[in-house]
Protein: Prokaryotic glutathione synthetase ATP-binding domain-containing protein
Organism: Erythrobacter insulae
Amino acid sequence: MTKIGFLACETTVPSSGERRGDAFEHDLMIAALEPAFAEQGLQLHVIDWEAPIEAFDGIALAMLGTAWNYQDKSDQFIAKLDALSASGITVCNAPEVVRWNATKTYLRDLAQRGAHTIPTEWRSDVTTADALAAMERFGCDKMVVKRQVGAGALDQILLSRGDMPPSDWHYGHAAMLQPFLPAIAEEGELSFIFIDGALSHALRKRPAAGDYRIQSLYGGTESMHEPGTAEIEAASAIIAALPFPAPLYARIDMLRAVDGRLTIMEAELIEPYLYPEQGPDLGRRLALAVAKRLSQ
Ligand SMILES: Nc1ncnc2c1ncn2[C@@H]1O[C@H](COP(=O)(O)OP(=O)(O)O)[C@@H](O)[C@H]1O
Ligand SMILES: [Mg+2]
């Protein structure tokens, strides 16, 4: 059996005393992958990414799995991926993909490469006056301010023209400003899971009533979604716009713009949850893709 590493973190590994609230997603991924990998002669090993390098002895390929604490120590994380790579392990997704995807300025690259993106202003910080000026330029009354490096809607705020913070307010982080797209509340966000550039499945994530964030932490829920041709084309166009060949796995999160077209919210290429519950064929697809990479 060929050994495949599935990188987890101290709060997603099953042996952890205090697992994160969403660690059940780790278990669902492993349950979907393990039997399908075994069928391809691949044995899945869950390893905390912070384990010493010797723990990776004999691993042929390492997937970034559920290394969900890496944001707090991203330099260490990337250094570890580089070290694994240098020791001859195929790291998926590759360290250069991780570097590119770690700050949301990659959305600017995608826009330059022709992707349909949400109009965005990039600033080192935001004051109330900056926010009002941006709303003027966007021609909107509601705006989302989020961190350029962030996840899980951390520190994200929704500003409304009629209810602005005091004039001495400032955001305090490198930020991106976007008009609020109302489709999030009705249609929700659509996620497309790609394995080696081929669509595996799609799903829809909707916020709880009264919220606009689809994260389960805020009561968001997911359901299966059968994508239409135009939707598949829109998501595939994002994969085609990446500045490198299609990575092993990608989750493209999209939202409907006011022109009716799907626009990109995020390209999740580091350690995205791949929603096996909505894609019963995910395990087989990933196992085949991993086996193919190892044979090349
Ligand atoms: N421009 C926007 N219009 C409407 N909703 C948004 C917008 N930007 C973000 N959101 C909401 O906030 C959530 C988190 O934003 P996102 O850019 O995906 O950052 P992250 O998931 O990395 O925290 C989205 O899933 C969506 O629910
Ligand atoms: Mg997101």
Observations:
- Residues 23-39 form the longest helix (17 residues).
